Amino acid sequence: MMKHPLKALAIAWRGVKTKGPMAPEIPMQNQRPAQYVFDINVQLTLSQIRANEAREKAAKAAQDLGIRGVIPGAIALQVMSTKPRAKPMARGFAL
Q1: Residues 68, 62: contact at Cβ < 8 Å?
Q2: How distant is the alpha carbon of residue 94 from its chain centre?
Q3: In a domain, 11, yes or no
Q4: Contact, 73 vs 79, CB < 8 A?
Q5: H or E element in which residue 94 lies
Q6: Tens digit of pLDDT for each residue in 82-92?
Q7: For residues 72 and 58, what is the distance between their CA atoms, to the nearest angstrom?
Q8: Is the pLDDT of residue 94 over 70?
Q9: Range list of H helices, 1-95
Q10: Does residue 42 fall inside a structural domain?
Q11: Which SS3 state, helix, strand or coil, does residue 69 take?
């Protein structure tokens, strides 16, 4: 709902005022210095993306060589889990 439908009607009928003096500039003497708070977030995200790309590249290279379970920058062994599977559940209750 419009707060001032008559004013909206007058503007629609006459059009928006575009001639005349412009509003004065806002004073900038007391403005606070700019803080670039997103620079850290951008750098963190880019480093994560690059790390993921390097990890994917290393995994693809290892896959091409037939090596499994390689973690870049560390020696890792692929350990198969011997833990038995959980019992199937029906409607949220263990059988």
Answers
A1: yes
A2: 39
A3: no
A4: no
A5: strand 93-94
A6: 445 555 555 55
A7: 6
A8: no
A9: 5-14, 38-65
A10: yes
A11: coil
Does residue 61 form part of some domain? yes
Domain presence at residue 49 = yes
Kindly state the tokens that stand for 86: 């959980």
> What's the pLDDT score for residue 87?
54
Tell me how far apart the alpha carbons of residues 10 and 5 are, in angstroms, rounded to a whole number.
9
Residue type, 28: M
The pTM for the full model equals 0.36
CB atoms within 10 A of CB 70: 17
5-56 confidence digits (pLDDT tens): 999 999 999 998 889 998 899 999 989 888 888 888 999 999 999 999 999 9
Residues in contact with 8: Cβ distance below 8 Å, sequence separation at least 6, in sequence order: 2
> 75, 83 in Cβ contact below 8 A?
no
Average pLDDT score over residue span 50-71: 82
Size of the chain in residues: 95
